[in-house]
Structure formats: structure tokens, C-alpha cells
Amino acid sequence: MSVLAIVLIVIAALLGVIIMFVIGSYNGLVTLRNRVEEAWSDITVQLKRRTDLIPNLVNSVKGYATHEKEVFEKVTEARSAIMNAQGAADTAKAENMMEGVLKSLFAVAEAYPELKANQNFLQLQQELVDTEDKIQAARRFYNGGVRDLNTKIQTFPANIVAGMFGFQAKEFFDVEDRASVENPVEVKF
């Protein structure tokens, strides 16, 4: 075999390895991106479920707590913010607002023993708690996917492939204001 033939075989082998690396990296990035999009879809489904439950819960509380107009207005504002949110950061901000408002709503409900005993209210409250748990799980799954995708996009040599094909880092779905989450909501009557 001639030297030229050996050089051509080595070059072909190197090109084959490079092509396989690019294909493998690209497929890995697509898989991670699709997982992140699936996780985001799960979050939006649960947020929609919660926004659908909230009017029923508010109506249950309204019958007992007619003078708590400010709480009901804040619930409506928070619900609207979630429904109109675009992207992870905007949705996280609206989500944080909703969590605070729901704490206020449940604090109002605590002041009315007959409401706390109402079966419809109790069922709605349980469904909302279940939905909140699902939102938290979906958020963790989404953030895990974002972490994996962003790590792959930012590490060498996959970052070269990510740059060639336009893969972008995604935003985490973070709690925006830690103080509002760590401190209880104060409700005054």
C-alpha cells in the first residue's frame, strides 16, 4: 500500500470520526431541547389547571367573605398575569405573584370556620394543593432539563456544534423574590 493510500485512509477515518461526533452532539442537543420543551408544556398544563380552579375557589370564598374585595382583585390580577405570561422569566414572576395571593386567600378562608367546613371549598382546596404539587414537580423537571441542555451547550466541544446549529441556552424557572417566598403573607382584617 502506498503512502498516499494510507494518508487518504487516515483522513477518511478522521472525517468519519468528526462527522460521527457532530451527528452525536447534534442529536444529543435536540433530545435535550425536546425534553425542555416537553417540561415547559407540563408546566403550562398545570398552570392552566390552576387558573381554571381559582375562579371556583374564589366564588366559594366570596359567599362567606364579602368584604375581602382587595384579596379577590389580587387573585384576578395574578390569574390574568399567569395567563398572559410569555417565557420562563415572565411566567415565574406571575407564578410568584399567584403563590402570594393564594396564601392570602387561604388566610382569609381561615377566618371563616363555616367556610372551612364547606365540602365544595375543601374539595377545591385539595385540588389546588394537588395542582401546586404538580407545578412544583414540573418546575423541577423543567429546570433539570434546562440545566442539562445549558451544560451541553456551554461545554467543549459540544459548544461548537451548538453554535453551528444555533442552539440557545434556556432560562430557568426560578423563584424571583426569595423574601416573598420565605416570609409568610401578612393578612390584616
Automatic annotation (TrEMBL):
Membrane topology note: Single-pass membrane protein
Matches recorded under Gene3D superfamilies: LemA-like domain
Highest taxon, organism lineage: Bacteria
Compartments reported by the entry: Membrane
GO CC terms in record: membrane
One Pfam family matching this protein: LemA
Keyword annotations of the record: Membrane, Transmembrane, Transmembrane helix
Principal cellular location given in the protein's record: membrane
Positions of transmembrane segments: 6-26
Homology family: Belongs to the LemA family.
Name of the protein in its database record: Membrane protein
Organism per entry: Candidatus Nanosynbacter lyticus
